[in-house]
Amino acid sequence: MTELQTFRKAHFTRKTPLTKDQLAAIRAGDACWLHSWDTSSEINGPGTRITLFMAGCELRCQYCHNPDSVFTEFGQFATLDEVWERVKRYKKVYEYTGGGVTASGGEPTFQWNFLRKLFTRAKEEGIHTTLDSCGYLGRLVKDEDMDLIDLVMLDLKEGTPEGYKQTTTRRLQPSVDFGDRLDKAGITLWGRYVLVPGLTDSDASIEGIADIASRWTHLDHIDILPFHQYGRDKWHELGLLYQLEDTPEPTKAEVARARSMFEERGIAVKTY
Ligand code: SF4
């Protein structure tokens, strides 16, 4: 048993384990682990949207502000029909505001079997679909699935292989490959960059992100999201080692510097 498996067994064992049928339904994409959901405007895609926070993620980002969402043990079992009923309920609102459904997480492609079926229903109803993804498991999204996705908000976490590994524990290249495939398929991309002082904001990191993003012809812009400490208490409650205890939020000047570095490369930027 690995260290992580031992940790999970000790901390996250479900009080009510899923039945064999429930697990089979999840494997088949007829059900999912759903962490939570909400309705919001603009931040999770255009218009007013329902955002599904799917449980499960293979990365371990130092700055994750929902560290519980990376473990499927914190997800509720939900069937495809249950989730679809919830999504469809707001169809008139999406039509009125130019919104739709966003799958976020955790990492939504971790449960792509489920989302493929959900997004198929959404497209049949003319509902706009967005993935908010780190791209690491992009290989699970097949070329024939691309028509199901209108927009991808793709995390650009760090622009160098070494820095990406330090920030997330995983490799950078799969996310770049996914971005390349999405761009080739003509899918609109919004890049998302969390500016963490001392972790993701070196010249090499920002230049590396600019190198990657500037070759995507369907990139609309990059969102610069300033790091914050809202997730710190969750790390503590879970008993996980939080490495950013003393990391400050970026100053306006630090955000402006990153912005100008992207803009000098011809990349449009939005800041929050
Ligand atoms: S990819 Fe997202 S959900 Fe996964 S660890 Fe990183 S910030 Fe958290």
Summarize the helices and strands and which ones pair or pack.
Elements (H helix, E strand, L loop, with lengths): L2 H10 L7 H9 L2 E11 L6 E7 L21 E4 H9 L2 H7 L2 E6 L6 H13 L3 E6 L17 E5 L5 H8 L4 H12 L3 E8 L7 H11 L5 E8 L5 H7 L13 H13 L4 E3 L1
Parallel strand pairs: 2-4, 4-5, 5-6, 6-7, 7-8, 8-9
Antiparallel strand pairs: 1-2, 1-3
Helix pairs in contact: 3-5
The site of iron/sulfur cluster has 11 residues, from loops.
Please, could you describe this protein's structure?
This protein is of the alpha/beta class. It has a single domain (3-271), classed as Alpha-Beta Barrel (TIM Barrel), CATH 3.20.20.70. It is 36% helix and 21% strand. The protein contains 10 helices and 9 strands. It has helices spanning 3-12, 20-28, 80-88, 91-97, 112-124, 161-168, 173-184, 203-213, 232-238, 252-264, and strands at residues 31-41, 48-54, 76-79, 100-105, 128-133, 151-155, 188-195, 219-226, 269-271. Strands 3-1-2-4-5-6-7-8-9 form a 9-stranded mixed beta sheet. Strand 7, helix 8 and strand 8 (219-226) form a beta-alpha-beta unit. Helix 3 (80-88) runs parallel beside helix 5. It starts with a helix and ends with a strand. The model has no long low-confidence stretch (mean pLDDT 94). It binds iron/sulfur cluster. Residues 57, 59-61, 64, 69-70, 105-107, 134 line the site of iron/sulfur cluster. Iron/sulfur cluster is lined by residues 57, 59-61, 64, 69-70, 105-107, 134.
Give keywords.
36% helix, 10 helices, TIM Barrel, nine-stranded mixed β-sheet, binds iron/sulfur cluster
Please report the first level of CATH classification, the CATH class.
Alpha Beta
Q: Determine the structural class based on helices, strands and strand pairing.
A: alpha/beta
Q: How many individual domains?
A: 1
Count of distinct strands: 9
| Largest sheet features | 9 strands, mixed
Neighbour order of strands in the largest sheet: 3-1-2-4-5-6-7-8-9
Q: How far is it from the N-terminal to the C-terminal residue, by CA?
A: 42 Å
